[in-house]
Every structure is written in structure tokens, then in C-alpha cells.
């Protein structure tokens, strides 16, 4: 046996590690939480890493998971060893091909980080609903319970698929295992190779399609033979379990780690048995051993590894003959079934063994099924204990749930949250950090330090919140001398660190700290004042539990070391200095070594900066004396601002306060319907600085409000009388716009909602001629202004919005008086997409129905607890829904068809009831032109009048018309999504919708990468850009989606970039919506994934247009009807070389640091493309081209 | 015609040397300039400060927004290593050396003491034939006296010289109280040549947006007078050789500076304005000038009109200044 080598890696890396080595072709597509497997593969291939046979696997990104499955099928059919990675909806898209692959008995391993399927809501987290949806495909299914098992069982899966010819689906729990970092024993290549038979690889190749030995596969069959032919595969499935067991045994001989199809743990004479798979089985392992040892319980656990084919023989053999009761836990829900899938497998197995005589039990076991852990719900020893406690009852609950409180049907099991089996030998730590402060990265680094320099085992799991700006992270770390089987969050911590004082205002950060534990706080407050700065409830807990408190001003230490806001190294040093996990001196030395290793590649200056931070940390870390009494006069704040409805305050408020786990089933809407307008109550207070308006300097252009990604800058023009009750600090000045003569003008910032991105300051065109550093908006610290601006904001909201009829929508300064119906989203600070979304909400939100493709916009637009879509004073606002990633155009078209049909019925009913309503009004409604805001408002008034006139009738027609009358007012259907959707996965549907001629508006938020999943290449990515899956720089040109759309001739097409030309953007939105046919706006959206300065992103927007890389234009088919050229080119000839623009963004510039030759070549090609494309567009704009 | 000139211990085939400039970033361009007749090339400057900024920029963008959101814990592929500034520069030297026959002079602008010596050594090890130290800084600290500044210059030269074996030229600005003394001190410290003078690109105010612009403005022939004066004054007073830079636009400019005492003349602005092929014109016109004046080699021309060599040495000094002005009639 080779010398053991350990690595601290996560489950995704463990799977990819083996899959990469066993594959020749890897077809990928990003989907959380599996994307990382593809990313690892792409990076390894880019670095020239080879597989077991000395070739670099070809890693190829497809346009969808379905596409990836097709490519896998093709690669397999032509003899390559092939793999793919996916999860959730991605797996669903692969299902058609999976039937084909298994039907043709083709060896492959699909790697699945199992994730929840979207139903009443989307969830990125883990459960087994996806893999259970693929049960019927004929794939074998292997479950891994931990990171180590992922690496081991991936190998066993490859060995088994080649022998059995049955394709394998190897799965492990999304996030819980895919993203959990564990120290594991790494399989040397020789071991993996020893598991893979060359003969079987050769047999696979011999079965391949080959014109030198031709045959036909994939035929069509008739009723005469299909059935018999289908039954021929049975022998392969019958043989599969024994093959897998033999491969497991072979693996044990090579590594010393023995696996079985069903692993049994517990008392050999157990009476009550739990059956479970994946990480839940790992959690149950230690719990069962603990309960057997400490409580003498006669219990046992069956850990399922080979879920399909489910071997009755092996399963029955795994159960003790003393078995009386069995609880089967499924991590999925199958509504309407008599039980969840594995429960049914177990019931059937017991029954079959009874029938076929393999039954060996003292008595017929009773079987109880339950659900647990949906969407990564915690599954802890206390919950596991409650499952066994249930079995102890005379009449245990069946079809129960565990881990939640079901107060509707009372199906849940109660559990004791204080029950813990954690060993004293394990150091358990929790770290509360901000995404931007580097906490998670530092913790990952600490795990590596301990894992790779000591004999300790270690584990790290990281919680992120659903916001993309100012997001909170909680890291859960364990270190100990024995293998750690604790796939659940730390609940009994020895050490808690709070990396930002602001958390103390909202969260009980030390609630999980045990008696005598250590609390570390990063605070700017001097040590002597730290105690008094803590909230009352925290002080009390510290005193009661004899907690030791340490404090450091990490911000100052970091800033003095040149590290800005990244306090990661400082806090990591503190952890090692006081947690006692390693001797202090050794720990510091290891941190320094690790800094040199980690940052060495990024340059000596970075290394020195971090080393300096380590040294000055130790000098600035102090213990805080804990007095005997609580001295504080304040406590944590409520999570929701006043004014929220009871539901919003109690339900969404609880989720916001980190108490969502405690909410019972009865409080939730049943069908996924939630109120809009809830982000306004969150008051996140994440901005360190906010813009402050200088009304004297302001020219009232409205640009600041237009570019604000979070709708926190608002403008109103109003009658001066309204100021009588204004707060003293409320700013205003006479309105400059002549249309609003005599009115007062205010620009107000929502200080508590602002993220402090400062894009408004960037766009402000005003320069103070006395002090050129000043503009009409200037960033100032938020805290001193918070109370005053809260009062101002509330007053501002009380001022009525301008009558929409009085606003000229194509005049930006007036248009920005329209109320945004999309506000305070959780998008990244400085987001480049949200200004477009907000603009659409202002212009058309009160009559908009929105189909939103999955992606950034569906997450910042629809991720609970609070959501940004909201209503106007009349209660109107956008109606929003997200179906899937791939179907969004079709989803939106369906809305259009439905709305048109209902409008048609309404018109018919209107005509039928013209006597009751009045012929004149009916005719006016039917003939009304509804293009402009004013026309639509007039129609709305007419319809209201018509509704009033039928209110008294109770006929069938009248009642139907009451339901449908609102459809007589024009509805605006918007189909919104990113480039991953529009250019790749949803392009087929998008194209179909463009061709439909129907009146839909498509908004493509083009960030040129899959932003939401972390920046993978799409067909919108420009040549030369580095992205994930294009680690060597994208070698091909960006697809010209606009040109493709224009080829239809009857589609309105606009290409816009608000940072370059906001008026053109505004015009495009207004025209697109007014056009009675399909419209598409391709909107350039700068993005954090570009590696740009997000505080001044508009300079990038300007540069991309000035360089010709992005061309502004509008193509309006209505102009052609008038005999004009429909194509209006609005970009001037390129003013600067494209290289100058590209060097402004790390996504391009980094290529020079990776591969200077490619950089030079791709930059050259980029310029050629820009020149060629501009020439072509300039030609289209010529008069001759009318 | 013998256009050879000795500079930094090397014999150059032409007294026209490419000055440190962005042209040096592209080896293909350097090759063209060699073909058109430059005698050596000075690569663009390696700015120590820029290297640090580049590292910080990369680190910032590779970490900004990461580990904040479960679906996107990072935004870029993970690379094991980056070719950061010095590596790229060193590769550039390597490439230039492999492509060109003419000597390749590396240019360095340090900010720290350690930086000067470390990078100087790196540049030597990468194959540079000589070094040009571009000691560029605008002292603004009101507590810093001129002696400290001058000592720092001398120290840099000493330290670099003691760490490398290849010849070292020092490129300076003209802003010293006593230029002669400075040159003498640095000469004693080991400088093999002086490149006179570095032009600071002066900031300008943009009246549109009130921003301070750092616009590049190319030199004109007028700009070469100051170098002409100091080269002429110092020629043969110290051991070090001279390269003239700044305002060498025409062959006549080059001839003047060589006559003043420069072994070579560095050019960039004229290439930027007239194109690379203009080097051919410069060479041809210099030959014509030499033929007209009856010189058969550059060697014969160097320093012919230096202060030591002319009947009226005061012409280069202050006394003459008053006279020049008084010749003007307003």
C-alpha cells in the first residue's frame, strides 16, 4: 500500500478528482452546487493535468445540461470514457439521454451533488428530490455519505460501471457534502488505476461506433419486438449488486476502507433500525454508536450505498434477525405516494424476503417512513434520536417528518435541541463574518493549515445568506483527533468569533457558545469600553456561562497593514492565538508559512502585507475583563422596520432574524404565493457611507436616480405647501424643470437601504467650481446621518408621487420622477443589471407581468425572506414569477397568450353587455389606442367606469366580465433574464418567441457570463475574456444575438448600455414596449464577475461603447413601414483601441498574467472583430440600406 | 561611413538608440527598428511601484465579492501562478535578446532600496546587456532637504553597481542645484553613463471636468538644449559617457548632441510622430551631414563642440545668458 497522503478538500473536488482521472471527455454546464466539479476539471485541463492514461481530458461546456447529456451520449457511443456533473433541474434535463445511455448498456459515471427540485419555490440546497426523479432511467445509483466516501465510491462506481455495463449516477448531498471541507485520504493514481480494468476499457472501445466496423444502434422498434428486447437487460441489473460488492472488496484490499452495499452500524442484536443514505447516514453513524454505548439502546443503522439496483438480498442480510421495527428516512417528498421511495423499497424488500424464503427475522419487522432534511434542513443527533424514540412507542408515527414542526397534521417528531453527542476532544468553532471581509477564505485556510500540518481531522462548513451585497457568512469548523462524522452545523461551540460589531445589533451571536467558551469580537471600540458596547442579553449570557472575551480592532490592524477592509488574516491569527487548537507559536509559524504559499503566486507585496498583519495582530489582541453585572442599556433590535404587516413582521421577520428553522408549517402560504413590497421593511444598514445631496449644486438631471442599482435615490417634485410638516433637516430647492414651475424639488436617499456603492456619485455631472472634489452628491459616513435621514426618508415617502400623466417619459429628468416598483434588492453593491430592471418597473410596472429566468435577477428579485418587487399607492405593481432557467421565453409567451385570450373574452363580454354599460363607453373602450401612458390611464378610467356600471348585475356574463375587465387595460409582458438564458440554455425558446410575432418584451441583462453561478463562460462572453470554463481565455467571438433577432425583420431590437447613453436606453425601453410585436433589448450590464471597480463601473460602460466592443443601436420595424431605414446606429466609430478598454477589466487583463501569447493574439482578434462588426453595422445604417 | 559609436562598453552600429518607451513592449517593433537602423534599444521601464499596484489590483479583484454567496463563491478560475510584472518583463528581455542583434538595455525605476538592487540583479540575470536606472521622483516632502535627496541618488548608483556586473547608465532629470556636482558624485559612485535628460510629463488641468490630466506630450527639438548644455559642459570632466535624450527629432538634432559630447542619442518622440521607418531617414540624413562636413566616423564627431573643446567655454555658462537675452529687441 502506498504511503498515505491527506488533503483537505470539499466533496465536489473529491468527485472531480477521480472523475477527471477516469475520463477522456467531460461535458459540463454550470448549476449550483455542482458547478465547481466542472470548474475544477476545466482548471486542471487548462494547466495540462493528465488522466490515468496520460492524456488531458477534453472539458467542454455545453449550452444546457440537456446538451451536455447529448454530448456525453455521443462521446460514449464513439468510445471515449466520459463523465458529466450536475444537480437538480440539470439532472432532469439529462433524463431523456440517461434512458438512452442505460438502454444501450453504456458505462459512464454521472456525478450529482444532490439538490432540491423547484416546486413551490426554488432552492439551491441539498436533498434527494433530483436523484429520485432519475430512479427510473436505469442508471445505477451510488450514495456517498462524506467527502472521503465521495472519492472512494466514485472510484468504485467507475470500476463497477465498466464491469456491469450499467451507467452509474454517483450522488452526494449538495452543499452539505459538496461544499463541506474535510481532511481526507487521497487515492493515489495507482490505486484508481488498479481499480480500472484495461480489458473493460478496451471492451468499451470495441463497442463504439466505428465506420471500420459498422453497425447500427438507436433503431426504432414496433410492438412485435420492443417489449422482449427491453427485457434482455435484466441479467445485467441482476448481476450489478454483486459486481459492486466485489469492487468494494477489491477497493478494501487496496486501501483498507471496506464498504458494503448496505453498511450496518450498531448493536448486532438491535431491535430498532434506521435506514438512511448520504450525509444523513454519516450523522446517524456516530449517533447510533453513542446511544448504543451510553444508553445501551438496542438500535442499529443501515447506511445505503447502492440505492439502485436495490438489492433485496443484500439489504435483508444487512439487517439483524432481531429487527422489530425499521424507520426509513427519505430526503425527498413524493406527494400522493403511499410513502417515499426508499421506504417503499424497504417495505417491498421485507415482504419479498418473506415470500421468497430469505426472510430471517425473529418476527415480521414493522416499517415506518419519514422525511427529513429537505433543502439542506439540518439533520442532527437530536433529530436522529427522536426517530429512534418514535420507534420505541407502541404506535409510532408513520409518514412522519423530522427536523421541522408540522402543526397542521402533527406529523412531526419532537426533538430536544440541547441533546449533543459532540466529543470533548473536538474543537468546535463558529465565525460570523461579512462576505467582503474574507472570513470564509481565512477559515478554509485555517482548515488547510491544521489538516496538513497535524494529525487532526478537520471539517469546515460555510453558511451564506441570500443577499449578494453585505451578506453574512457563518463558518462552522471542527478539529479533532478522530474522524469527524458531524454533517450538521456547530451547535455547541467552544469558540465563537464575531467579525463585525453590526451583527450584535441583530443576532444572538453567542447563543451556541458552551460554558467557559471563548468569544472573540472585532470592534473599533477601545478594550476598556468593549464590555459596555455589548447588548444586554449578550452580557448576561457571557456572565452566566463564564465566557472569556477577547477583542481586537481588526479593521485598524488590517488598514495599517495595507489590507483595507479584508480582516481575514488578522482574525485568523486571533483564532490561532486564543483557541488553543495548536500551540500558539507553532500556529503563528504555520500561518506565516501558509501566507507565503497562498499569496506567493500573487506577489511579494501581498505576502509582506499579510505577514505584517500577523505580527501586529498579536500586539493588538486583548482579553476583555468580564464584570459580575450586566451594565449595558441596549439590546438587539427587531429585524423588521415598523409598518410591516403581521405576516411580514412575524414570518419574514423571523427568517431575517435567523429563526426561520423555528417556524411551523401552519404559518406558510401553501402555494408559493408571497406578498410583494417587503424589502422596504428590512433596513439593512450596510452602507458605511451614503450619498448626501447638495441641493445648491444640483442641476436636477435625474441621472443619479437612474443609475442607482438599489432604488435608494429618489426624486420628487411637489407643491411647496407640502413642506409645512417637513423635518428640519429635509432638503429641497425650487424645481428647475419649466413644466413644473413653482414646485419644490428633493433628491432623497434611503440611508438605511443604500449599499454605499457610490455609482450615483460617479454619474453626477456637476462639478463644484470652488471645490472641484465636490459634486452634487458626495459620500459621507452613514452612521451619524442614520437617524436624521430615516426621518427625512419617511417624510419624503409621505409626499405624493407626481401624476404619471404629467410626466414626459422620454425626458430622463421627468421620467425619473416615476416611482420605482423594484427597490432595495439584494443584488451586488453597484450591480449593472438592476438599473434596467428598475427602469422597466418605473415605466411599466403598474401593468407588468414578468417572467423571470433563473439567475441573478431571479435571486435578487425573488429570494426570500424579503423581496424587492413592490406596489404603487393604488396597490398596482409588477406580478412576478420564475419558472425555470431554460423555459423563460416560453413561460412569458404563455402569459401573453393567456392575457390576450382573456382580453378577447372581456371584449366579447363587453360587447354583449353594451346595453348595460352604454354603447358609447363600450365602443370607446374597444377602440381605445393604448400606446402612451396617458392613453392607458384613460383606458383604465373607462374600464373602471364600465366595471362600476355592471357592479349591480349578477348574471353569468356580468360576473365573468367582472373577473376579466382589467384585461381591457393593456398589460405589458416582460421576459427577463441573463445571457446564460438568452444566448445559451433558453435560446431555442427565445428564438421561437421572437418568431411568434406576439407582443412580448424581452430584456436580456447581458453580463457576458453566468454571473449567478460564479462567472462561467456563455456564448455572450467576448473573445479574450477569462471566465470559468474558459480558464485559458475565450477563443471565440461573442454571439451577435441582436443581429440574429433583426434577421426576422418584424422584431424590435435594441442594444443599450445605460452607463454610456442613458437617453438611448430610455428611448429603447419606451419604443420596445410600445411596439406591437416581439421586442428584445440587449442591455449591457457590468458585473462583479468582470473584475472591475464596482464603485465606478460606468467608466467601463463608456469604454466598452467608445471602443466599439459594444454597439448602441435601435432597430424599429415601424420605421420600415414609414419607408425609413429601421436600423438606427447610435454608436460613433470606435474612439479608442479595444485593448484600452479590455485592460480596464481583470477578466481580460488577467490573461496577460496567465498566457501572454494568447493575450496578444486574442486582443488582436478582438480588434479585428470590433472593426469588422462596426463596419457591418455602419453599412446597415446607410440610406441605401432602407 | 562609420556610424559606430561606443556606449556602455559596447560598440553600437548606430548612434540612434531607442529610448525607454512603450515601443519596447513589442518585440516585433523592436525588430523593425533594428532593421531600420537603431544601434541599441532601451526597453520600457520596469516600475517597482507599478508592480506593487498590479499585485494589489489582482488580489483585490480575485477576492472582491468572493465567499459571500453560496452559488458564486468565486468569480474567476483558480490559477496556481500568475506571471506578474517582473516575470513578464524578464521574459520580454529574454525575447528581445533572442530576436535582436543590437544590445538590449533594460530600464528600471525603483522605489525602495531593496527594490533597486533586487530588480537590477533580476534584469541582469535575464540577459540585459546593460541597465538604465530611471531615477524618477518628484520630491514633495517639505521636510526632505536636498542633501538627503542627492545622497539617495548616489546610494542607489552605488548599491546597484555593487550588485551587478553589467554597465549601468543613470537617467536623470535636470532639476539639481549643482548638476555638475551630482554627475561627478554619481560618476565616482560608478555610473558608466548618464542619460540626459528625463522629461517629466507635466500634469494638465482639464477645463471640461476639472480633472487633472496626465497627457503625454512629445518633445520637440527645442527640448534638447538643456541636455546639449550639460553634456557639453561635463564631457571629459568625468569618466562616464553621455547619451542625449529628449528632443532628438531630426538628424541635425542628433548631430548637435554628438558634437556636444553624447556618444549616442536616444529617440522616441520622432518615431511616435513620424513612424518607425523614419529611423532610416535619420540615419541617412546623419550620413549626409557627416559627408557634408567631412566626418568619416561618429567617433570623430563626439565632443567636438564640448565646452572643453571650444575657444569660448563661457558660451555654455550663465554669463552668456544675459547676452542672449539682451540681443532681443522688444
Quickly list its features.
heterodimer, A: 1186 residues, alpha/beta, Rossmann fold, 7 domains, 9-stranded mixed β-sheet, 8-stranded mixed β-sheet, B: 330 residues, TIM Barrel, two-stranded antiparallel ribbon, 12 strands, globular
Largest sheet of chain A: 9 strands, mixed
Strand order across the biggest sheet of chain A? 1-8-18-19-17-20-21-22-23
- Integer count of domains of chain B: 1
The CATH homology group name of the largest domain in chain A: Thiamin diphosphate (ThDP)-binding fold, Pyr/PP domains
What is the class of chain B in the CATH system? Alpha Beta
Helical content band of chain B: 40-55%
Radius of gyration of chain B: 22 Å
Secondary structure layout:
The complex is a heterodimer of chains A (1186) and B (330).
Chain A: E1 5-10, H1 11-22, E2 25-28, H2 35-46, E3 58-61, H3 65-77, E4 82-86, H4 88-103, E5 109-114, H5 129-133, E6 140-143, H6 147-164, E7 168-173, E8 181-186, H7 189-195, H8 198-206, H9 226-230, H10 234-255, E9 262-266, E10 272-277, H11 279-295, E11 299-304, E12 306-308, H12 312-318, E13 325-330, H13 341-356, E14 366-372, H14 381-392, E15 400-402, E16 412-413, E17 427-434, H15 439-453, E18 457-464, E19 472-480, E20 493-498, H16 503-506, E21 513-522, H17 527-533, H18 536-544, E22 548-552, H19 554-560, H20 568-579, H21 584-600, H22 604-620, E23 622-624, H23 646-656, E24 689-693, H24 703-707, E25 713-718, E26 733-734, E27 744-749, H25 759-763, E28 777-781, H26 786-798, H27 812-815, H28 834-844, E29 848-852, H29 856-862, E30 879-881, H30 888-912, H31 914-917, H32 919-927, H33 933-950, H34 956-964, E31 972-978, H35 979-985, H36 987-996, E32 1001-1006, E33 1009-1010, E34 1016-1017, H37 1041-1046, E35 1052-1056, H38 1062-1074, E36 1079-1084, H39 1098-1106, E37 1113-1115, H40 1117-1121, E38 1127-1129, H41 1138-1142, H42 1146-1154, ...
Parallel strand pairs in A: 2-3, 2-4, 4-5, 5-7, 6-7, 10-11, 10-13, 13-14, 14-15, 15-16, 17-20, 20-21, 21-22, 29-30, 29-31, 31-32, 32-36, 35-36
Antiparallel strand pairs in A: 1-8, 6-12, 8-18, 9-11, 17-19, 18-19, 22-23, 24-28, 25-27, 26-27, 33-34, 35-37, 37-38
Chain B: E1 5-7, E2 10-12, E3 16-18, H1 27-36, E4 40-47, H2 48-63, H3 85-99, E5 104-109, H4 113-125, E6 130-134, H5 146-163, E7 168-172, H6 179-189, E8 193-196, E9 204-205, E10 212-213, H7 225-234, E11 241-245, H8 251-260, E12 264-267, H9 269-274, H10 278-293, H11 298-301, H12 318-326
Parallel strand pairs in B: 3-4, 3-12, 4-5, 5-6, 6-7, 7-8, 8-11, 11-12
Antiparallel strand pairs in B: 1-2, 9-10
Helix pairs in contact in B: 1-3, 4-5, 5-6, 7-8, 8-10
Amino acid at each position: 500500500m502506498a504511503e498515505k497522503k491527506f488533503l483537505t478538500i470539499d466533496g465536489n473536488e473529491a468527485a472531480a478528482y477521480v472523475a477527471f482521472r477516469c475520463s477522456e471527455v467531460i461535458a459540463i454546464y454550470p448549476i449550483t452546487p455542482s458547478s465547481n466539479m466542472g470548474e475544477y476539471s476545466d482548471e486542471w485541463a487548462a494547466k495540462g493535468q493528465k488522466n490515468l492514461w496520460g492524456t488531458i481530458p477534453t472539458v467542454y461546456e455545453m449550452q444546457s445540461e440537456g446538451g451536455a447529456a447529448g454530448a456525453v451520449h455521443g462521446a460514449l457511443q464513439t468510445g471515449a470514457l466520459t463523465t458529466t456533473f450536475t444537480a437538480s433541474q440539470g439532472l432532469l434535463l439529462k433524463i431523456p439521454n440517461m434512458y438512452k445511455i442505460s438502454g444501450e448498456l453504456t458505462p459512464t459515471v454521472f456525478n450529482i451533488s444532490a439538490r432540491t427540485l423547484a416546486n413551490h419555490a426554488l432552492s439551491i440546497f441539498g436533498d434527494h428530490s433530483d436523484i429520485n426523479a432519475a430512479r427510473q432511467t436505469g442508471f445505477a445509483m451510488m450514495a456517498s455519505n462524506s467527502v472521503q466516501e465521495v472519492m472512494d465510491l466514485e472510484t468504485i462506481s467507475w470500476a463497477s460501471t465498466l464491469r456491469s455495463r450499467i451507467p452509474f449516477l454517483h450522488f452526494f448531498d449538495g452543499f452539505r457534502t459538496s461544499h463541506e471541507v474535510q481532511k481526507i485520504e487521497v487515492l493515489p493514481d495507482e490505486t484508481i488505476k488498479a481499480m480500472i480494468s484495461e480489458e473493460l476499457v478496451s471492451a468499451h472501445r470495441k463497442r463504439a461506433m466505428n465506420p471500420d466496423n459498422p453497425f447500427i444502434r438507436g433503431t426504432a422498434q414496433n410492438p412485435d419486438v420492443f417489449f422482449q428486447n427491453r427485457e434482455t437487460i435484466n441479467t445485467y441489473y441482476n448481476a450489478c449488486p454483486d459486481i459492486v460488492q466485489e469492487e468494494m472488496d477489491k477497493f478494501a484490499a487496496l486501501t483498507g476502507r471496506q464498504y458494503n452495499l448496505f453498511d450496518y452500524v450498531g448493536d448486532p442484536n438491535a431491535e430498532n433500525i434506521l435506514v438512511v443514505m448520504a450525509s444523513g447516514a454519516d450523522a446517524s453513524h456516530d449517533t447510533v454508536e453513542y446511544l448504543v454505548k451510553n444508553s445501551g439502546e438496542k438500535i442499529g443503522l443501515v447506511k445505503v450505498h447502492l440505492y439502485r439496483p436495490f438489492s433485496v438480498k443484500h439489504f435483508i442480510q444487512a439487517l439483524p434477525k432481531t429487527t422489530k421495527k425499521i424507520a426509513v428516512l427519505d430526503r425527498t417528498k413524493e406527494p400522493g405516494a403511499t410513502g417515499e421511495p426508499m421506504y417503499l423499497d424497504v417495505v417491498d424488500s421485507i415482504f419479498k424476503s418473506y415470500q421468497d424464503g430469505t426472510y430471517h427475522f425473529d418476527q415480521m419487522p414493522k416499517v415506518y417512513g419519514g422525511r427529513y432534511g429537505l433543502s439542506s434542513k439540518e439533520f442532527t443527533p437530536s433529530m436522529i434520536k427522536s426517530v429512534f424514540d418514535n420507534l420505541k412507542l407502541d404506535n409510532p408515527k408513520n409518514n412522519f417528518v423530522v427536523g421541522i414542526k408540522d402543526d397542521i397534521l402533527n406529523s412531526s417528531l419532537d426533538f430536544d435541541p440541547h441533546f449533543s453527542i459532540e466529543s470533548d476532544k473536538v474543537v468546535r468553532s463558529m465565525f460570523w463574518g461579512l462576505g467582503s471581509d474574507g472570513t470564509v477564505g481565512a477559515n478554509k485556510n485555517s482548515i488547510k493549515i491544521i489538516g496538513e500540518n497535524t494529525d487532526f481531522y478537520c471539517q469546515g462548513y460555510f453558511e451564506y445568506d441570500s443577499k449578494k451585497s453585505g451578506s453574512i457568512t457563518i463558518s462552522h469548523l471542527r478539529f479533532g483527533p478522530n474522524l469527524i462524522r458531524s454533517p450538521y452545523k456547530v451547535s455547541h461551540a467552544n469558540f465563537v468569533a464575531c467579525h463585525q460589531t453590526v451583527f450584535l445589533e441583530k443576532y444572538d451571536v453567542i447563543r451556541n457558545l458552551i460554558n467557559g467558551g471563548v468569544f472573540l469580537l472585532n470592534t473599533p471600540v477601545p478594550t476598556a469600553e468593549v464590555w459596555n458596547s455589548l447588548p444586554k442579553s449578550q452580557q448576561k449570557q457571557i456572565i452566566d456561562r463564564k465566557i472569556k472575551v477577547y477583542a481586537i480592532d481588526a479593521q485598524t490592524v488590517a488598514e495599517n497593514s495595507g489590507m483595507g477592509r479584508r480582516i481575514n488574516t488578522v482574525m485568523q491569527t486571533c483564532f490561532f492565538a486564543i483557541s488553543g487548537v495548536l500551540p500558539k507559536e507553532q500556529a503563528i509559524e504555520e500561518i506565516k508559512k501558509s501566507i507565503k504559499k497562498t499569496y506567493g503566486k500573487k506577489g511579494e507585496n501581498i505576502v509582506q502585507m499579510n505577514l505584517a498583519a500577523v505580527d501586529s495582530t498579536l500586539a493588538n489582541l486583548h482579553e476583555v475583563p468580564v464584570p459580575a453585572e450586566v451594565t449595558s442599556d441596549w439590546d438587539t433590535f427587531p429585524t423588521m422596520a415598523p409598518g410591516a404587516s403581521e405576516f411580514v413582521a412575524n414570518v419574514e421577520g423571523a427568517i431575517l432574524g435567523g429563526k426561520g428553522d423555528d417556524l411551523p408549517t401552519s404559518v406558510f402560504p401553501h402555494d408559493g404565493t408571497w406578498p410583494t413590497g417587503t424589502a422596504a421593511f428590512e433596513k439593512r444598514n450596510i452602507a458605511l457611507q451614503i450619498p448626501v445631496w447638495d441641493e445648491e449644486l444640483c442641476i436636477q438631471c435625474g441621472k443619479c436616480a437612474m443609475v442607482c442599482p438599489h432604488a435608494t435615490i429618489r426624486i420628487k417634485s411637489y407643491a411647496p405647501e407640502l413642506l409645512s410638516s417637513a423635518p428640519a433637516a429635509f432638503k429641497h430647492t425650487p424645481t428647475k424643470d419649466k413644466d413644473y414651475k413653482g414646485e419644490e424639488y428633493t433628491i432623497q436617499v434611503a440611508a438605511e437601504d443604500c449599499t454605499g456603492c457610490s455609482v450615483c456619485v460617479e454619474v453626477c455631472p456637476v462639478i463644484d467650481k470652488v471645490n472641484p472634489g465636490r459634486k452634487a452628491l458626495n459620500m459621507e459616513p452613514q452612521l451619524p446621518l442614520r437617524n436624521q435621514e430615516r426621518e427625512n426618508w419617511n417624510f419624503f415617502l409621505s409626499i405624493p408621487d407626481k401624476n404619471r400623466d404629467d410626466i414626459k417619459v422620454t425626458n430622463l429628468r421627468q421620467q425619473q420622477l416615476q416611482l420605482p416598483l423594484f427597490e432595495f434588492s439584494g443584488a451586488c453593491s453597484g450591480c449593472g443589471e438592476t438599473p434596467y430592471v428598475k427602469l422597466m418597473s418605473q415605466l411599466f410596472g403598474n401593468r407588468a407581468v414578468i417572467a423571470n429566468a433563473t439567475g441573478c435577477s431571479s435571486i435578487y428579485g425573488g429570494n426570500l425572506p424579503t423581496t424587492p418587487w413592490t406596489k404603487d399607492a393604488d396597490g398596482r405593481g409588477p406580478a412576478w414569477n420564475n419558472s425555470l432557467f431554460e423555459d423563460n421565453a416560453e413561460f412569458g409567451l404563455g402569459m401573453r397568450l393567456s392575457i390576450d385570450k382573456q382580453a378577447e373574452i372581456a371584449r366579447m363580454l363587453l360587447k354583449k353587455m353594451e346595453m348595460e354599460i352604454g354603447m358609447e363607453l363600450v365602443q370607446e373602450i374597444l377602440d381605445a389606442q393604448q400606446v402612451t401612458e396617458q392613453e392607458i390611464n384613460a383606458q383604465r378610467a373607462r374600464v373602471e367606469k364600465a366595471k362600476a356600471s355592471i357592479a349591480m348585475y349578477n348574471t353569468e356574463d356580468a360576473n365573468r366580465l367582472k373577473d376579466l375587465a382589467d384585461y381591457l387595460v393593456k398589460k405589458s409582458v416582460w421576459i427577463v433574464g441573463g445571457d446564460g438564458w438568452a444566448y445559451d440554455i433558453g435560446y431555442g425558446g427565445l428564438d421561437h418567441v421572437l418568431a411568434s410575432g406576439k407582443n412580448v418584451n424581452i430584456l436580456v441583462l447581458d453580463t457576458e457570463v453566468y454571473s449567478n453561478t460564479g462567472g462561467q463562460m456563455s456564448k455572450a462572453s467576448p473573445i479574450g475574456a477569462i471566465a470559468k470554463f474558459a480558464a485559458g481565455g475565450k477563443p471565440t467571438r461573442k454571439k451577435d444575438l441582436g443581429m440574429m433577432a433583426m434577421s426576422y425583420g418584424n422584431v424590435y431590437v435594441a442594444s443599450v448600455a445605460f452607463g454610456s447613453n442613458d437617453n438611448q436606453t430610455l428611448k429603447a425601453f419606451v419604443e420596445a414596449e410600445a411596439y406591437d410585436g416581439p421586442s428584445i433589448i440587449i442591455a449591457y450590464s457590468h458585473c462583479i464577475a468582470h473584475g472591475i471597480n464596482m464603485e465606478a463601473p460606468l467608466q467601463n460602460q463608456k469604454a466598452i461603447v467608445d471602443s466599439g466592443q459594444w454597439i448602441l443601436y435601435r432597430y424599429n420595424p415601424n420605421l420600415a413601414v414609414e419607408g425609413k431605414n429601421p436600423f438606427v446606429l447610435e454608436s460613433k466609430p470606435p474612439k479608442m483601441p479595444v485593448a484600452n478598454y479590455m485592460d480596464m477589466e481583470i477578466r481580460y487583463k488577467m490573461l496577460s498574467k496567465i498566457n501572454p501569447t494568447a493575450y496578444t493574439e486574442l486582443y488582436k482578434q478582438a480588434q479585428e472583430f470590433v472593426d469588422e462588426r462596426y463596419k457591418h453595422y455602419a453599412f446597415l445604417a446607410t440610406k441605401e440600406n432602407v | 561611413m562609420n556610424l559606430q559609436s561606443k556606449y556602455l562598453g559596447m560598440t553600437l552600429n548606430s548612434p540612434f538608440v531607442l529610448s525607454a518607451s512603450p515601443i519596447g513592449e513589442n518585440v516585433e517593433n523592436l525588430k523593425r527598428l533594428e532593421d531600420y537602423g537603431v544601434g541599441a534599444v532601451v526597453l520600457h521601464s520596469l516600475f517597482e511601484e507599478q508592480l506593487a499596484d498590479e499585485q494589489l489590483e489582482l488580489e483585490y479583484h480575485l477576492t472582491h465579492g468572493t465567499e459571500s454567496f453560496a452559488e458564486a463563491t468565486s468569480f474567476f478560475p483558480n490559477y496556481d501562478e500568475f506571471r506578474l510584472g517582473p516575470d513578464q518583463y524578464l521574459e520580454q528581455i529574454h525575447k528581445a535578446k533572442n530576436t535582436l542583434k543590437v544590445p538590449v538595455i533594460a530600464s528600471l525605476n525603483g522605489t525602495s532600496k531593496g527594490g533597486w538592487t533586487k530588480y537590477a540583479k533580476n534584469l541582469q540575470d535575464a540577459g540585459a546587456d546593460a541597465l538604465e536606472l530611471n531615477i524618477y521622483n518628484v520630491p514633495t516632502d517639505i521636510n526632505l532637504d536636498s542633501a538627503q535627496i542627492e545622497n539617495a541618488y548616489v546610494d542607489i548608483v552605488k548599491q546597484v553597481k555593487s550588485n551587478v556586473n553589467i554597465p549601468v547608465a543613470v537617467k536623470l532629470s535636470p532639476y539639481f542645484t549643482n548638476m555638475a556636482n551630482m554627475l561627478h558624485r554619481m560618476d565616482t559612485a560608478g555610473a558608466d553613463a548618464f542619460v540626459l535628460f528625463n522629461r517629466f510629463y507635466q500634469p494638465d488641468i482639464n477645463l471640461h471636468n476639472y480633472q487633472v490630466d496626465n497627457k503625454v506630450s512629445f518633445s520637440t527639438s527645442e527640448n534638447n538644449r538643456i541636455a546639449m548644455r550639460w553634456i557639453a559642459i561635463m564631457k571629459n570632466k568625468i569618466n562616464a559617457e553621455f547619451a542625449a535624450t529628449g528632443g532628438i527629432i531630426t538628424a541635425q538634432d542628433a548631430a548637435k548632441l554628438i558634437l556636444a559630447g553624447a556618444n549616442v542619442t536616444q529617440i522616441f518622440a520622432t518615431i511616435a510622430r513620424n513612424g518607425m521607418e523614419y529611423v532610416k531617414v535619420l540615419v541617412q540624413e546623419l550620413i549626409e551631414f557627416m559627408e557634408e562636413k567631412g566626418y568619416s566616423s561618429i567617433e570623430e564627431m563626439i565632443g567636438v563642440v564640448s565646452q572643453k573643446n571650444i575657444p569660448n567655454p563661457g558660451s555654455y555658462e550663465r554669463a552668456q545668458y544675459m547676452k542672449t537675452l539682451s540681443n532681443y529687441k522688444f
